[in-house]
Design brief:
Layout (H helix, E strand, L loop, with lengths): L1 H10 L30 H9 L36 H14 L29 H12 L6
The structure holds heme C (HEC).
Length: 147
Amino acid sequence: MRACFLALFWLGACSPTGNAGGPYQIEGDAIPAPLTMETTDSRRGADLFADRDGAHCILCHQHENISVEFQGNLGPDLSHLSHRLTAAQIRLRIADYDAVKPGTTMPSYFRTKNLYQVDPAFEGQTVLSPLEIEDIIAFLSDDDQIP
Ligand code: HEC
């Protein structure tokens, strides 16, 4: 199963059932398997979260452990997110929120299929890399670790 997942990931080949948006397997309202086996770093995740040129999460969200002025309020406050969502649920929401709530304004950071108005130069590319998403999950699912 995992071997199949990894093979899919690298080859971009077949499309498992119930998986409309990209190279990951959705189960219920979550993506249980990490997108990469690389070692994650919640500090890097926090930096990405706050970086307006990177993941720009802070444009729409707030987080009490991020000391950036003018945090956004279009999306919910993501402090203490681990109290209400598992890492697997957070993974689906970052990768493909559209699979949770079609038409949401929350961008789908790892979706490669069924997107609209994609510049041909970026077709098939995800907004964030697997490790970037896992770093952000590490930050959001364990906010006690952060400074
Ligand atoms: C353009 C604005 C926007 C940006 C940028 C954005 N989000 Fe969101 N996000 C939202 C909105 C709006 C919601 C609520 C979704 C809904 O109800 O439709 C949401 C919901 C979420 C949720 C679910 C929260 C919950 O309580 O269920 C998570 C997790 C999340 N966002 C993480 C992120 C991360 C991580 C980033 C950066 C990689 C990010 N978001 C960037 C707008 C945004």
